[in-house]
């Protein structure tokens, strides 16, 4: 096979893969992840099921690809927002990343639901999703690490009964951070996605009306929580 023919086949595979994912995302929006069907995707694209299986052998393989794409898209949005304020102080960088997470979620509600909504029955995410899933978390850890090495973090309380778990957390996630900062980071990470999820999934309806300044205030309080100066 000539290099030209191989290149054409590779481009065709990329285009078909993109079309499959796009149709799958449309089905996610209409039906939810639990009802995603390879046969339905093939039917909408005018393909026979056996042809689609050459691209994604199972529904779980397709779900995994969509999940990695969603995490990567979110990570890229957060990293771009951080790069735009890279010369600012830790608090400004922290709030910029948190704000980017919210804006991405509002622009991609179904993909956000796929990665941070209800688990898909019968699906277990493989380790291949971890690098993409970690991008925002690593960005937030980096901001706290820079503050710790530079101006320093505020002293944070750490109950004695939490110390063993906090020490385990920093050993796994950021060995150069104090245990109290590690515990605070994990709590802030969970609260960030809780804030976004409450807004996205309707729990703030008739509770919080002016949501953008509310979110920025909450994100700033999370910066306090992790000890950013």
UniProtKB/TrEMBL annotation:
Family annotation (Gene3D superfamilies): Tetracycline Repressor, domain 2
Alphabetized UniProt keyword annotations: DNA-binding, Transcription, Transcription regulation
GO molecular-function terms, A-Z: DNA-binding transcription factor activity; transcription cis-regulatory region binding
Portion annotated as DNA-binding: 37-56
Pfam families registered for this protein in UniProt: TetR_C_33, TetR_N
Domain of life: Bacteria
Keyword Transcription: yes
Domain HTH tetR-type: 14-74
InterPro entries registered for this protein in UniProt: Homeodomain-like_sf, HTH-type_TetR-like_transc_reg, HTH_TetR, MT1864/Rv1816-like_C, Tet_transcr_reg_TetR-rel_C_sf
Name of protein: TetR family transcriptional regulator
Organism: Streptomyces longwoodensis
Species lineage: Bacteria, Bacillati, Actinomycetota, Actinomycetes, Kitasatosporales
